[in-house]
Amino acid sequence: MESQGSGQEDDQARFRSVVLPHLADAYTLARWLTGNRTDAEDVVQEACLRAFRGIRGFAGVNARAWLLTIVRNAAFSWLGKNRPAALVMVDDLEAVEQRQAGGSAMEPDAGPEASLIAKVDAAQLEKAIAELPVPFRETLVLREVAGLDYREIAEATKVPIGTVMSRLARARQRLIAKIGMSEPGTNEP
Amino acid sequence: MTPPSDHDDPSLLVHAYLDGELDPAHALEVERRLAADPALAAERDRVEALRGAIRDRLPREAPSPDFMRRIEAIGGSAPASPHSVTHAASQPSWRALAASVLLAAFLGSGATWFVLHPGPAETTADLVLANHLRALMAPQPIDVASSDHHTVKPWFNGRIPEAPRVVDLASEGFPLVGGRIDVIGRVPVPTLVYRRRQHLISLTALPAQVAASLAAGPRTIAGYNTLSWTDNGLAYWAVSDVAAADLDAFEKAFREATP
N- to C-terminal Cα distance for chain B? Predict the structure, then answer.
């Protein structure tokens, strides 16, 4: 049997097989949370260092969800230091969400035509996503870009699955409304 | 999933339905409501259009090569191992080329990078795991999606010399998801994909001589379990993040099933 003497090499091998395959997703999440390339790379590098230090604690179930959770936490540390305003909104949103959860549900009111949404150009879509409040944005990106399921998003963002579901729905509804509005001549009076 | 009771507003459920998160009973209920309610159907169309636009049009910015090298350095440079000497580590460009051509449909930027940097130990276990991980990163873990073995088996014909034995194990708790072609030791080989609850199992069938040219490798790598057995001249390799006991049950079910 292998001795445990080569711990550093084991950790490095584990890091390569657990973390490296998911680096592109990690970068994409950080890119969307920080808003630019340089900061995203700093956040992912910090997250990867954390991942390396904690590699023995990885339970082996879902490497991508595990890494993205670390990236998300590193991004939030970074936001707290560099963009505190973005995080203040988390609490406000949470309060709004609580009130809404107790009140009437969202109505599927009239929105823009699906064909209009399908034609949205990349820059417009990118801007609309970038303008989403952080909790909506991270939920949307984890689902639509990283492809995590609700349970994985719930674990990564530390909220119940029902909150993931409603945040995702609200994020999409905001995007749809924004795309509909920004198309001149097609928005309802 | 079963949505919490205070979230059963139909609009919310449409999102969960499109995300494939509803259990069959709730999914049927949403389909019934969609058929009856044009406003809800319009909402579904908008959400689908949005998801399509995000998927197809949102630019994916790849991290810079310089940054990738920095992160790679955290994992150390790949140490020489006894297994790697005669295989890809000494000839990475050939291997990358073969993999790129055969798996072109799979490769996003991150996946490409992974192919270009094979791990240090090129054992069969490492290779089947690499294929499994690469497939999980792709938009679809399979090239042909079907739970019908009469669809999956003919798909392999003409793509590889010999179509594998394809059985559906849904009644044993392992429904067939589909199949794909993987590359092991430079040879294209069939891989079947089964599902165990939310987890995927990749089952690769290697010609015995290919398997014999490689060291088997560990049963557990980075939390993934592998399991191999030989049957009728083929070496079967199963890899998944399910528990080892589930993989044992899978082997038993597969070996006992009749096509």
Answer: 32
Q: What is the tens place of the pLDDT at every residue in A48-63?
A: 999 999 988 887 778 8
Q: Do A160 and B4 touch (CB under 8 A)?
A: yes
Residues of B with Cβ-Cβ distance to A150 under 8 angstroms:
1, 16, 19, 21
User: pTM here?
Assistant: 0.56
DSSP state letter for B174: B
The phi, psi pair for B59, rounded to 5°, reads -65, 135
Tokens of B53: 């636009």
Q: What is the extent of the structural domain holding B33?
A: 7-57
Chain B closest CA to A158's CA: distance in Å? 17
Percent above pLDDT 90 for chain B? 17
Domain A1-82 carries which CATH code? 1.10.1740.10
Contacts of B76 in chain A (CB under 8 A): 8-9, 12, 16
Q: Report the complex ipTM.
A: 0.84
Q: Do A125 and B61 touch (CB under 8 A)?
A: no
Per-residue pLDDT band for B259 (boundaries 50, 70, 90) equals low
Task: Say yes or no: B218 contacts chain A, CB-CB below 8 A.
Answer: no
3-state secondary structure of B169: strand
Token readout for B13 is 């459920």
Separation CA B84–CA A82 (nearest Å): 45
The answer to whether residue B40 neighbours chain A at the CB level (below 8 Å) is: yes
Which CATH code fits A84-189?
Answer: 1.10.10.10
Tell me which residue has tokens 């009076």: A189
pLDDT in tens, A4-27: 446 778 888 889 888 988 888 899
Q: Does B66 touch chain A (CB under 8 A)?
A: no
Residue of A41, A112, A162 with shortest CB distance to B46: A112
d(CA A170, CA A106): 9
Q: Mark whether B117 and B220 lie in a shared domain.
A: yes
CB contact under 8 A, B108 and A24: yes
CB contacts of B59 in chain A (<8 Å) are 122, 126
- What's the per-residue H, E or C state across B27-55? HHHHHHHHHHCHHHHHHHHHHHHHHHHHH
